[in-house]
Amino acid sequence: TQVAREYLRDKDQTRNSIAQAVSYLRRASNIKPENTNLKLELESAETYQSGFRNFVDKDWVQSIENLEVVTSENQNFAGGNAKILLFEAYVALGKQYYASSLFQDALGYFEQAELQTWEDEDNLMKLFQVQVLIGDTLEKLQEYENAVSYYDYALNAIGAADKLVDFPALEDNYAEAVSLAEDEAYEGAILAFQEVIDGIDVIYSISEAVIGDGVCLALFAAENLSTMDAIIDANDLPEDPVITFGQNLNVPVIEN
């Protein structure tokens, strides 16, 4: 049981290590069949295994369904790994709906992802990116005032006003966006905010970290206070939740 829990908490877990964890829990349950708590833990581990497999296969709907079951019973199951995967699955499914112009559906999943960010105050990248996605979606729904508000929330959350002092062009765009918003010129404000957001990577801190074969990028990103999208963009990686070959990756972080 102890070994199984260590495998499930591991941020470098793979399909194989999770399968081993489930196998150990199953054996433990067979030894103590009268232990109800252990039986429930095994069921959660099996559901988590399915959710992880769905996540790796990019079956976001099924992954969310399984991970919601696990986290509803224990928010910190697998050392919080279930919650990390659920956040990234919400974002991925929201982006899928957004790409299909199903903006109302996309908004719902982005909002679910945003709720997850409030419990992770150290990872500003998560909050920033998901609030920008909400702003983009609200613009598509022609809710311009709300879109402006979300762009403003996102930039305020990362302390953009202070961090852009060394980047005069972006600082001017930011000031213009805020001014247009105050004048209720929301469509112009949106364009100005988007220019700032397009160039915001200049304030990221970039570090280098090693990721192993078969490791889930979502867990690696969360462990390094980043996101899958940020790491994929910074390293020109394919849109794949798992790293096939171990390598050094650039990890963008927004410092608190």
Element pattern in H and E: HHHHHHHHHHHEHHE
The total beta strand count reads: 2
> Compute the gyration radius: what is it?
20 Å
Q: What amount of the residues lies in strands?
A: 5-15%
**What is the helix content?**
55-70%
- Count of discrete alpha- or pi-helical segments spanning 4 or more residues: 13
Oligomer: single chain
Overall SS class: mainly alpha
Distance between the termini: 37 Å
- Taking pLDDT < 50 over at least 5 consecutive residues as the criterion, the unreliable ranges are none
Largest sheet: number of strands, sense, barrel closure: 2 strands, antiparallel
The averaged pLDDT comes out at 96
Shape: elongated
The largest sheet has its strands arranged as 1-2
Q: What would you say this structure looks like, in words?
A:
67% of the residues lie in helices and 5% in strands. It has 13 helices and two strands; from the N terminus they run H-H-H-H-H-H-H-H-H-H-H-E-H-H-E. The protein has a two-stranded antiparallel ribbon with strand order 1-2. The longest helix is centred in the N-terminal third of the chain and has 21 residues, at 36-56. It is elongated, with a radius of gyration of 20 Å. It starts with a helix and ends with a strand. The mean pLDDT is 96.
Topology:
Elements: H1 2-9, H2 15-31, H3 36-56, H4 60-73, H5 81-99, H6 103-117, H7 124-140, H8 144-157, H9 160-163, H10 168-182, H11 186-198, E1 205-211, H12 217-223, H13 228-235, E2 247-253
Antiparallel strand pairs: 1-2
Helix pairs in contact: 1-2, 2-3, 3-4, 4-5, 5-6, 6-7, 7-8, 8-11, 10-11
